[in-house]
TrEMBL record:
SUPFAM superfamilies named among the record's database cross-references: DinB/YfiT-like putative metalloenzymes
Superkingdom as given in the UniProt entry: Bacteria
InterPro entries: CHP03086 (IPR017520), DinB/YfiT-like (IPR034660), Maleyloyr_isom (IPR017517), MDMPI_metal-binding (IPR024344)
Organism in which the protein naturally occurs: Streptomyces boncukensis
Domain Mycothiol-dependent maleylpyruvate isomerase metal-binding: 14-134
GO molecular function, one term: metal ion binding
Name of the protein in question: TIGR03086 family protein
Pfam families xref list: MDMPI_N
């Protein structure tokens, strides 16, 4: 077994989900209509997307098709987001507790990857969406800079600026000062306007 194959991405995913869960729990009813940096998403829709991503991650881990889950879950009551997130996270943790799944090829709509790579990709997505929620609700000081640095490093390798445009989840890179904090640089790299 190589060092690379011995790497377990689940602890880092748990940290990213802890951070996302804190952001979800902090959202007040008066903030659900706030705009987010994600095009076409207010806070309510972004919460629905975060829950959807958890459900997709559980689905693909169990051998299902992520396309069976809508991109935004919209049937959750305004006071039900924390329990929906917690239930979906629990299902992800249950499915992905199987060590064998880390090296198994998992089919995603955009690629077929080893399970450990899938978890790393989604770790960085949850980190980015934590920033989106924190930005929309003005709670930026509560974010883990190490998670932000790892997400920025990963996105820099796999989401090349020349491969994106105005359409899709990542817009053109937005210029920011060189001394900007890591989450500002991450958001700008993903095409958000911090």
């Amino acid at each position: 077994m190589t060092t690379e194959s011995a790497h377990d991405p689940r602890p880092l995913l748990a940290r990213a989900l802890d951070q996302a869960g804190k952001q979800v729990a902090a959202v007040g009813p008066d903030e659900l209509g706030n705009r987010t940096p994600c095009a076409d998403y207010d806070v309510r829709a972004l919460l629905g997307h975060v829950v959807s991503v958890l459900r997709k991650l559980a689905r693909v881990g169990a051998g299902g098709d992520a396309r069976d889950v809508p991109d935004v879950i919209d049937d959750i009551a305004d006071d039900g987001w924390v329990s929906a997130f917690t239930r979906a996270r629990g299902e992800v943790e249950r499915v992905w507790a199987d060590d064998g799944l880390l090296d198994r090829t998992v089919e995603l709509p955009w690629a077929a990857l080893p399970g450990r790579d899938v978890l790393e990709a989604y770790t960085h997505e949850f980190t980015a969406h934590s920033w989106d929620l924190a930005h929309a609700t003005r709670r930026l000081a509560e974010l883990d800079p190490d998670l932000g640095a790892q997400a920025l490093d990963a996105f820099s390798k796999f989401v090349r600026p020349e491969e994106r445009g105005e359409q899709g989840p990542f817009g053109p890179v937005v210029p920011v000062p060189d001394d900007a904090d890591v989450y500002t640089r991450l958001a700008a790299y993903l095409g958000r306007r911090p």
